[in-house]
Amino acid sequence: MKSIKYIYSSLFFLAAGLMTAQAQDKKPEEKAAVNEEIEVVRPYKPILAEAVKLRRSPNLDDVKIYKAKLNYSITDRKLELNSDIQKLQAQSLVDEKETELINNYVKGAFGSQATLLGEAYFNTGKDEGLQFGGYFKHFSQEGKLNKQNSSNQQLSVFGRSILTENTVSGRINFERNGTYFYGIDNDKPLLNPNPEKQALSFIELEGELVKNFTEDEDAFSYALKANGYIWGDKFSAKENYFSLNGYLNKRINSLNLGLAASTEFGNTKDALTNVGNNLLRLNPYIRLQVKGAKITAGINIVQEFGAYSSSKIFPSVTADFTLIPDYLQIFGEVKGDVNRNSLKGFTDENPWINNNILVKNTVEKLSISGGIKGTGGPGFGYKARFYIKQFDDMPLFINNFTDFNKFDVIYDFGKTKLTGIEGEISVQVSDALKWTGKLNVDDWKPASETYSWFKPGLKVSSNFIYTYNKKLSFNAGVVIQDDVKAKVNVAVPVNPLLYVIPNPSIESIVTVKGFVDLGIGAEYIINKKFSVFAKANNILNTNYSRYLYYQVNGFNIFGGLTYSF
Predict the structure, then answer these.
(1) How confident is the model at residue 104, as a pLDDT?
(2) What's the pLDDT score for residue 99?
(3) Neighbours of 449 (CB within 10 A)
């Protein structure tokens, strides 16, 4: 048994040894070295062929000099002195492509309530030294009430030229406002079956000459402006006006000495009235302007002549201090003046004025205001102020006793006080988003009337613009106003031309409710030439009134096309 184990063990070790021998690398066979003996019999000696041998040796005694034949010519050249430093010649650039200036457009639109809009604007090229242009607009609508129609046309031509020393500008304006006395009493809807038509026309001319600004510390500056207009309605009312304004200012370092002066001539005429209303103002002042502060002190001398004659002197003081540059300024003002009233001004505020209106001026005896303004960083601006004012003969609108849908103008005899605050804000988050807002809170204290008729205590307005992309943009606006009071006489009152003191026993006070008017719009730019737009007004569709018996148009929408060139 043991012998068998020995045999197996021997075979195992023999196999392992053979495998190990085969796994070893084989060494390459070495080549045999060459051993050869070379015998050198003689040294190497080059042999030249017979054809290339020289048969003669050079003559070392030959010293003859070789002279080549040369031909010379003299060139007559101008001697240039290049000792001066030469100017470098600027390399001309490739002409840039001129920017295409698009400052003219034509716009047209139509929509609900027979809305029709036409608008055009044109201007000459981009030469800032010489500008000439024009503007035209037509807008009309028809409401749901009987003869609730309105139309407005505007036409303006203007020009400006910047000369070496002065700038001259001028413009001509024309405006026509057509409407009806469509006011309706909901309690007595049959009182106005055939509303009268009214048309207010206005043409104005204006020219101005201004001394161009200069950095000279002792500069002398001046300006002159002339303005005149003719106004009339569909009936017998007419008004003409002319004013001439100018100022002189002498700068002495940080000090300014100046004089502002103006004269106004006007005449208002109707079937039963003819009023001359003229004013002369003189405002000498001294102004100190240093870093962070500007103070102006002067007086305002006003002479009233024509149908009424009076002389008055008011203070005229303003101050502005910069506490944090660009971020915070405080300002204040104390002043007084005579505010000139006119039929043009009354009808701009309320177009449903009666005939034979008494026109006289309002004296702003004292006006004190102050506040802060500035910015809170890029894209954010603000302004807040308070004001306290006192008026004599404050004009107010009341409904006529006979024609309830026409308004007379009465004057609150005595001293009317107004206390209020005003705030403005502007926020531009980016180039695509901008928001502005304004707030007025007023507290009226009438002199002899029960209320200051149609004078709101709260007014809010706001606008929002959002640019979605380069082609699409949106805009929105809102106007908010609180309740106002209106006076309705229940018995025959004193003729408005003779009105002085109210008679509460024949007065009925009506509340005209406040309102919120919201509008939105959108514009889409098709290309550089064409764009489309749409606008919706009075989205809440509230039949509110700004003046008693006169409802505004309800919800309306219109859209159109704009062509720019």
Answers:
(1) 94
(2) 67
(3) 23
